[in-house]
Amino acid sequence: MKKIFLLFLLVVGAIAGNAQTKKSDSKPISKPVINSSIKQKILVPATTIPVITTVPPASTQKETIPITPTNNTPTKTDADYYLAAISVRISTGNDNKEAINSRAFVYAFTGDKKVSYIMPGTQIAGYANEIKANSINDFGLERVINLTDSKNSLQYYKQNGLLVSVRYNQYNFKTDAWKINNVSVTLQFKDKDGNACPSFTSKTINFPTANGILGFRFGDDPFTNDAHLLILDLKMDQYFNPLAANFRKVNNGEIGPFIHFTNY
Predict the structure, then answer these.
(1) Residues 6+ away with beta carbon under 8 Å from 11
(2) Which of 62-76, 91-105, 187-201 has the lowest mean pLDDT?
(3) Residues 174, 221: contact at Cβ < 8 Å?
(4) Confidence band, pLDDT 50/70/90 cuts, at residue 258
(5) 223 and 203 in contact (C-beta within 8 Å)?
(6) Composition of the chain by helix, strand, coil, percent to 5
(7) Pairing with 14, which of 27, 154, 169, 173 sits 20 to 30 Å away (CA)?
(8) In 3D, which of 183, 180, 175 has the Cα closest to residue 139?
(9) pLDDT of residue 69
(10) Average of pLDDT values for 127-140?
(11) How far is CA 227 from the centre of its chain?
């Protein structure tokens, strides 16, 4: 009887403990609290999120443009440059120009046949010294025209050409002669301040046809030189190219009463 009662108490206790466990497990589950602001952000589609572009403020600094200085110096032309120097090189052959008994003259003429340059100190009496056979001789000519004369300008010479004339007078012995093998002329053009012309600093013109005899030739009158070829003309064209050399006689008025030559 006691065993049956103890067994009954164990069954009743087990039932009561099970019921207590179910009661403690039956508590209500609380719903999670969702932040309304977070909920709104989650619901916004990604494609609708505005993209904000930051634009830098416009620069207020003005751009500096370099200014090229204006050159007020006028451009020079051929009219601003003048024949400032001229030299003549004469190569002699096997017959010299005699001393004392003969005279030599070298002239440069403008296009209108006005003397512009001469051998220094020879305008009246000429060059009396000997010019030896088979020698090369340089003669710097002396200017007798105003430097800035318009007829001495590079422009004028280009338009009218230039003439260099070598002259010989064997006034004492008419049978004397002077053999010339070659002549070259060097020109220099500068402005009034002495600055060289950039396009025409210095130019040498060679006359290969200046090869012949001044004075007595075989068959000439030995008592007078009126018909002798006493002048060698060397002309240049407007580009300062040499033209054919011309050995010629003296024209009327080209020689003075004694031994000197007058203008062209």
Answers:
(1) none
(2) 62-76
(3) yes
(4) very low
(5) no
(6) 20, 30, 50
(7) 27
(8) 183
(9) 61
(10) 94
(11) 51
- Give phi and psi for 9, each to the nearest 5: -65, -40
CA distances from residue 92 to 96, 114, 135, 193 in whole angstroms, order as listed: 7, 27, 5, 37
Residues 5, 18: Cα–Cα separation, whole Å = 20
Best CA proximity match to 199, nearest among 116, 78, 84, 37: 78
Alpha-carbon distance 174 to 122, whole Å? 21
Give residue 258's identity as a one-letter amino acid code.
F
Cβ proximity of 233 and 222 under 8 Å: no
Do 164 and 184 form a contact (C-beta atoms < 8 A)? no
pLDDT value, residue 62: 61
Task: Calculate the dihedral angle through the C-alpha atoms of 193, 77, 144, 89, rounding to the nearest 10 degrees.
Answer: 100
Contact 200, 189 (CB under 8 A): yes
What does the DSSP 8-state code read for residue 154?
H
Which of these, 237, 212, 244, 238, lies nearest to 90 by C-alpha position?
Answer: 212
Top pLDDT among 127 and 41 is at 127
Distance of CA 121 to CAs 118, 139, 143, 189, 199, Å? 8, 12, 11, 23, 32
Q: What is residue 55's predicted lDDT score, i.e. its pLDDT? A: 58
Q: What average pLDDT does range 220-236 have in this prediction?
A: 90
Burial class (CB in 10 A: 0-12, 13-18, 19+), 157: buried
Among the listed residues 106, 130, 132, 128, the one whose alpha carbon sits nearest the alpha carbon of residue 119: 106
